[in-house]
Design goal:
Number of helices of chain A: 14
Helix content of chain A: over 70%
Oligomer: homodimer
Strand content of chain A: under 5%
Radius of gyration of chain A: 18 Å
Largest sheet of chain A: 2 strands, antiparallel
Number of strands of chain A: 2
Shape of chain A: globular
Distance between the termini of chain A: 19 Å
Order of helices and strands of chain A: HHHHEEHHHHHHHHHH
Strand order of the largest sheet of chain A: 1-2
């Protein structure tokens, strides 16, 4: 039987080969703009969102080819959000995925444009899909709304607004987790459902949301006890910057208990599905441990 | 007969009432994010792109209702581009449309997110249009590509890259004018054509491009001889920042001669059209004089 690692790797290399082709065709002037887009797109990363999309697609019987541009668009959106999030006046990150952040290499002005460019290019890809019919339009609009001002951008805005708050309010923390992090994971798992008539739509939406919350909580835990090598970015930043984190609210041990509860909840949802859920079940555990 | 001014005002108030309704429905958390989006959207402005779209629509017999969300989306995209362009590490503008720029009021981090939010919201509106059929998808994708990495973003990137170049290269100047400024005007005039089966498609594309070049050239002229009151933003910035401008290449008098040539070219294209072109002909002259 194919192991979890082999399967993850199969999804990952499948996506990376798509991305490689996409980057090959990504030409624009000035050269520096094209270079900066490719620098951030090709900086490795777990490709968690595309992998999730492919895995759910396989579970639902949606062929990977049908998902390709949705997976690419989602990864472009995720990458733009990292570039803008790392800007000096946002999270001020110097490293991402083990390499210097985009603005450290290309300058802040160019990094703003690189982010804008990736976001715009994602939607150009998705408009291209919209010619294929209304299910495709629905899937594209779903991604757009998850990424938008009632989704990821709202979460980032709340994250910024509540920096240095003295106390952590649980409802605000939930809002940030849900929007900043979970919404794009929801998009990843719901798109295959939309493309096959809405199968398990509600369950997948909840699954993506809980998994996203788990992902952010383990991120917060690793910011305290992880290493640069493990995360590819500097640790200990949350506390230094007065960030809203689960660790601040629940403590380190409390966060771990809570993470286990969220992981169990994910598994519980998966068990309602027909078909082979073993990969997704393992994935939940690996998100819990943050080993991919 | 209705005067040019009355007609412009009619298009403008029509659009502003659409925008007012749109802003009324624009709700998101945190409150600050919603406020910053509305601050920039409702800061007045000439609304040149929506006015152009409505005027061309009227010429081609495309009803305004059909164009509403395209006009809104285009103005959202234009507004996002101004917010990001005004950022300290880009053009570093303190005033826009006579008021403090977004980042001066809400901070740089929030202004990055406000721009992202407007861009994303524009595309959410356009995906909503895509359910209506492939002409709508084509029009939406056309706007997206005009705004993208082979359009406006490429122009802004080139503008940034060539800041402080010692000499002005005409091909680079043309690239900046065409992409940074003209592409969104092209979108404004081509969308109505796409929505009625491509009538005058090629002519309108050229018209938008020449008009956009004219617009940017008069902008450069006014940066030298205009006033804050006239422009709603600080003047004399281009020279101080070593910007690529028509005035640097052609001189002030040479730029005026060239602007007249471009205006004549616009009028020449319009004269090929059937129907009442009087408003658009006047508009060209007002763009030449920069009085709306």
């Amino acid at each position: 039987m194919i192991s979890y690692k082999e399967k993850y790797n199969e999804y990952l290399t499948g996506f990376d080969s798509l991305l490689e082709d996409f980057c090959h065709g990504l030409n624009c002037k000035p050269e520096k703009l094209a270079k900066s887009l490719k620098y951030s797109l090709k900086s490795g990363g777990k490709r968690l969102r595309p992998v999730l999309m492919f895995a759910v697609g396989e579970l639902l019987g949606v062929e990977r080819k049908k998902l390709s541009n949705f997976a690419l668009a989602l990864e472009l959106i995720h990458t733009y959000s990292l570039i803008h999030d790392d800007l000096p006046e946002m999270d001020n990150g110097d490293y991402r995925r083990g390499r210097l952040t985009n603005h450290k290499v290309f300058g802040t002005g160019n990094a703003v444009l690189a982010g804008d460019g990736l976001l715009n290019t994602a939607y150009s890809l998705l408009f291209g899909e919209c010619f294929k019919g209304n299910d495709y339009v629905s899937a594209a609009k779903f991604i757009c709304d998850c990424a938008g001002i009632n989704g990821m951008i709202a979460g980032q805005s709340a994250d910024l607004e509540h920096e240095n708050d003295e106390c952590v309010d649980e409802s605000v923390l939930n809002f940030i987790y849900e929007n900043k992090t979970a919404k794009l994971l929801v998009a990843a798992v719901v798109v295959p459902s939309i493309l096959c008539g809405g199968k398990y739509y509600a369950e997948l939406k909840t699954f993506g949301s809980v998994l996203g919350n788990l992902f952010q909580l383990t991120d917060d835990i690793l910011d305290v006890e992880g290493t640069f090598e493990q995360l590819g970015k500097s640790t200990g930043k949350d506390k230094a910057e007065g960030k809203y984190t689960g660790v601040r609210l629940y403590g380190l041990d409390g966060s771990k208990v809570r993470a286990d509860v969220l992981a169990d909840k994910c598994t519980g949802i998966l068990e309602k599905f027909d078909g082979d859920i073993s990969f997704l079940k393992d994935l939940v555990q690996f998100v819990r441990q943050r080993i991919f």
